[in-house]
Write a structure and sequence with these properties.
With 207 residues, the protein is of the alpha+beta class. Helix content is 27%, strand content 37%. The chain contains 7 helices and 10 strands. The termini are far apart. The relative contact order is 0.13.
Length: 207
Amino acid sequence: MQQAITGYHQDEHRDWVAELACGHYQHVRHQPPLAERPWVETADGRASMLGQMLSCKKCELGAPADEPKVPKVVVESNRERTLRLIQAIARGDANTIADAYADDGKLHTMGNTLISGVYDKSQIRQFAGSVLEAFPDGLRYTVHAITAEGNRVAVEATGAGRHVSGKDYVNHYHFLFTWRDGKLLELKEYMDTEALTEVLCGGARPA
């Protein structure tokens, strides 16, 4: 499938990558005799090829658009923001939690429980501090693995604490954070919904 070149960037090896109108990326190396692309070697040459068509195999395979190129320093900053936010969630710091979100940010709590759903920033600010109501001594998160790539940070963690009911709560989480310009655009949290229902919801389930 033919797609137009709309821009370029360099990868970590400083090889040139064409950005296509479909959202996919494709290397355009000059590697004679295998690939003759002398135009890629100069700024004028690259500019002259904007709008030209390339065959996109990713389109033929139905692949999703490639992630935008994100500088390494931004990826690392997102990783550090994520770890700080997890600490704020553990201590029930409502203002820090809510302020971390973009104005159009969303929290997705997965599953079919009394607290599952999609929440906007105003709703997050209202209930973020309820952690301390449910867990007077706070929660403890142990991070087992963290992977930062592009604007997304994936975290595997265990959360534990003594619930106000007197029950001990232990749950295993997978968090997926998506950042945009230093603000949290989306947080998806996956967990053992049975453990959540038993302790946080007192065994109650949606009707």
